[in-house]
C-alpha cells in the first residue's frame, strides 16, 4: 500500500516506534501528524536503544525522508536536543532526511509552565499530563493565539507576536497562579536562535509529501498516543489534545483522505495506561506489578510507572473500527510468558446493560465492570520465534482467539524490542 496510517489502538505506548521503524524498511517517507514531545517512541536496533519524541521513527534508516507535519506541536528546543542527540550517536540528521512543517505550532516556555500550573490547580482532578505544554499549545492554536514555525524565522514577527501573547500569559501565570512571569527577552533570544538552527529543515511539508506520493513513493503516517487518548474518541477529559488516529492524518499532514490507502492499528497483547483516567481492564496489586515488571512498563518520556491490565477487546475493537483498520499488529506477546492464565476483557457491564461495543456515550466509563474470559497461558520464552507455527500451542490459541474476538486480522506479531523480533502474518 503506497500510503498507510499506523496508529495506536489503546492508551499509547503500544510499541508504535518499534513497528514503524520495522515498517519503514519498505517505506520512503515517515510522517508525524499530531502530538508533540509528549510521545516517546522506542526503537531498538542492534542493541542500541533510541527514544524519539518529535522525530519520526524512520530516522534510523538511511535514505528515508522523515517529516514533522503541520499538526504536530513542536517544541523547537526539544527538537534541537533530539537532532543533536542522534548526530552524536552517529545518525546523520539534515534538511534532507528531516523536514519540519512551517505551519506546525510552536511550544514555548509559557505553554509548559501553564500545563504544569493547570495540573496543580486541578488537584485530584488532574489529567496526569506529561507537562510538555501540549494542551496549552493546541488550545492557543484553536484560539488563534499561537505562533507557527514560520514565525520563528522572522525576528520582527516573532518579537511582535510573542510580546503581545506573553503579556496575557504572564498575567495568568502571575495573577491566577501566583508564580513568577516568563522572561520575554530570554524567550525571544532562545527562540530566534532555535529558528535559525532549524531553518534548513523547514518547508511546506504537506506539498512535499503529496508530491512524493504522486511520484509513487510509499508514505507511512506515524501516530502518537492512541485512539483511547484521542480528544474526540477517547476517554475525555483524560485524553491528549489532538486527533491521534486516522482522522488526524488529513489535517495534521495536509494529506487528502481519499489518497490514504490503508490503516493499521497497534495494540499490546495486554494493556497499559500512564496518567489518570478510566482504564476498565486495569489490574491492581501483585498481578499488576508482575505484568509491569515483565513488560518494563515505565514511561519512555517521563519515566512514570505505567498502569497495567489485561487486553481489552472492547476498546481495541472500537479503535480499529474508528480507524477503518484492515489489520493490526499485536505487540509484546513475549511478555505474557510465565504469567499463568491470561484474562481478556470481552464486554462491559453498566447499569444493567451489557456492552460489546465501546459505550462512548457513557460519561462514567470508569464505572463499567468488565466481563472476562480466561485463557491458558504458556511458560516458554517466545522472543526468538519468527514463525507463527513455532509458537507454543497456547500462545497460538491466545492470538487466534483474540483476533476472532476483535474481528480484525492480526497482520504481524511483535515478540521483542528489536527491529527483527516479529512474526509476519501478512505484513
Ligand atoms: P510507543 O510509544 O508506542 O512507541 O511505545 P513505547 O516505546 O513508549 O513503549 C513500548 C516499549 O516496549 C518500548 O520499551 C519498546 O522497546 C518495547 N517493545 C516494543 N515492542 C516490544 C515487544 O514486542 N516485546 C517487548 N518485550 N518489548 C517491546
Ligand atoms: P506515545 O506516543 C502514553 C497521556 C498522558 C496523560 C494524557 C495527556 O509514546 O504513545 P498530554 O501531555 O498529552 O497533555 O497528556 O495523555 N499521554 C501518553 N500516554 N503514551 C503517550 O505517547 C502519551 N502522550 C500523552 O500521560 O494521561
Ligand atoms: Mg511511548
What does this structure look like?
- This protein has 427 residues and is α/β, with parallel strands linked by helices.
- The chain has 3 domains: 3-102 and 202-259, Adenylosuccinate Synthetase, subunit A, domain 1 (Adenylosuccinate Synthetase, Chain A, domain 1); 105-198, Adenylosuccinate Synthetase, subunit A, domain 2 (Orthogonal Bundle), CATH 1.10.300.10; 267-424, Alpha-Beta Complex (Adenylosuccinate Synthetase, Chain A, domain 3), CATH 3.90.170.10.
- It contains 12 helices and 20 strands.
- Strand 19 and strand 20 form a beta hairpin.
- The longest helix is centred in the middle third of the chain and has 22 residues, at 155-176.
- The chain starts with a strand and ends with a strand.
- The mean pLDDT is 97.
- 6-O-phosphoryl inosine monophosphate (IMO) binds next to helix 4.
Per-chain topology:
Blueprint: E1 3-8, H1 16-23, E2 29-32, E3 41-45, E4 48-52, E5 65-68, E6 73-74, H2 76-88, E7 98-101, E8 105-106, H3 109-122, H4 134-142, H5 149-152, H6 155-176, H7 184-198, E9 202-203, H8 205-214, E10 219-222, H9 247-253, E11 262-268, E12 271-273, H10 285-294, E13 307-309, E14 311-312, H11 313-323, E15 327-331, E16 342-350, E17 353-355, E18 369-375, H12 393-406, E19 410-414, E20 422-424
Parallel strand pairs: 1-10, 1-11, 2-5, 2-10, 5-7, 6-8, 7-9, 11-15, 14-16, 15-19
Antiparallel strand pairs: 3-4, 12-13, 16-17, 16-18, 19-20
This protein binds guanosine-5'-diphosphate, 6-O-phosphoryl inosine monophosphate and magnesium ion.
Amino acid at each position: 500500500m503506497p500510503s498507510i496510517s499506523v496508529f495506536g489502538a489503546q492508551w499509547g505506548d503500544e510499541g508504535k516506534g518499534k513497528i514503524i521503524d520495522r515498517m519503514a524498511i519498505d517505506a520512503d517517507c515517515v510522517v508525524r501528524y499530531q502530538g508533540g514531545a509528549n510521545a516517546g517512541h522506542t526503537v531498538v536496533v542492534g542493541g542500541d536503544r533510541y527514544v524519539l519524541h518529535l522525530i519520526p521513527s524512520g530516522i534510523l534508516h538511511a535514505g528515508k525522508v522523515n517529516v514533522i507535519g503541520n499538526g504536530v506541536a513542536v517544541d523547537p528546543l526539544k527538537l534541537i536536543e533530539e537532532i543533536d542527540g542522534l548526530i552524536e550517536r552517529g545518525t546523520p540528521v539534515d534538511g534532507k532526511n528531516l523536514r519540519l512543517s512551517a505551519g506546525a505550532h510552536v511550544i514555548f516556555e509559557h505553554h509548559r509552565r501553564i500545563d504544569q500550573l493547570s495540573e496543580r490547580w486541578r488537584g485530584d482532578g488532574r489529567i496526569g499530563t506529561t507537562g510538555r505544554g501540549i494542551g496549552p499549545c493546541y488550545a492557543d492554536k484553536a484560539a488563534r493565539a499561537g505562533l507557527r514555525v514560520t514565525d520563528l524565522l522572522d525576528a520582527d514577527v516573532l518579537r511582535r507576536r510573542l510580546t503581545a501573547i506573553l503579556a496575557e500569559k504572564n498575567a495568568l501565570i502571575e495573577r491566577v497562579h501566583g508564580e513568577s512571569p516568563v522572561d520575554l527577552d530570554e524567550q525571544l533570544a532562545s527562540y530566534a536562535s532555535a529558528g535559525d538552527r532549524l531553518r534548513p529543515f523547514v518547508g511546506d511539508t504537506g506539498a512535499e509529501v503529496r508530491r512524493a506520493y504522486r511520484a509513487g513513493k510509499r508514505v507511512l503516517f506515524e501516530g502518537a498516543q492512541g485512539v483511547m487518548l484521542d480528544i474526540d474518541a477517547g476517554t475525555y477529559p483524560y485524553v491528549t489534545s489532538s486527533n491521534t488516529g486516522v482522522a488526524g492524518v488529513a489535517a495534521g499532514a495536509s494529506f487528502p483522505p481519499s489518497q490514504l490507502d490503508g490503516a493499521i492499528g497497534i495494540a499490546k497483547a495486554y494493556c497499559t495506561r500512564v496518567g489518570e483516567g478510566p482504564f476498565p481492564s486495569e489490574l491492581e496489586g501483585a498481578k499488576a506489578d508482575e505484568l509491569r515488571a515483565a513488560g518494563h512498563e515505565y514511561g519512555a518520556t517521563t519515566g512514570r510507572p505505567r498502569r497495567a491490565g489485561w487486553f481489552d477487546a472492547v476498546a481495541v475493537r472500537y479503535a480499529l473500527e474508528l480507524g477503518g483498520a484492515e489489520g493490526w499488529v499485536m505487540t509484546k506477546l513475549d511478555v505474557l510468558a510465565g504469567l499463568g492464565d491470561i484474562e481478556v476483557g470481552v464486554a462491559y457491564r453498566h447499569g444493567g446493560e451489557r456492552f460489546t461495543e465501546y459505550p462512548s456515550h457513557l460519561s462514567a466509563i470508569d464505572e463499567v465492570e468488565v466481563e472476562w474470559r480466561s485463557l491458558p497461558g504458556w511458560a516458554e520464552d517466545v522472543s526468538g520465534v519468527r514463525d507463527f507455527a513455532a509458537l507454543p500451542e497456547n500462545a497460538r490459541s491466545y492470538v487466534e482467539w483474540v483476533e476472532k474476538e476483535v474481528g480484525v486480522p492480526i497482520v504481524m506479531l511483535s515478540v521483542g524490542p528489536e527491529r527483527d523480533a516479529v512474526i509476519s502474518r501478512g505484513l
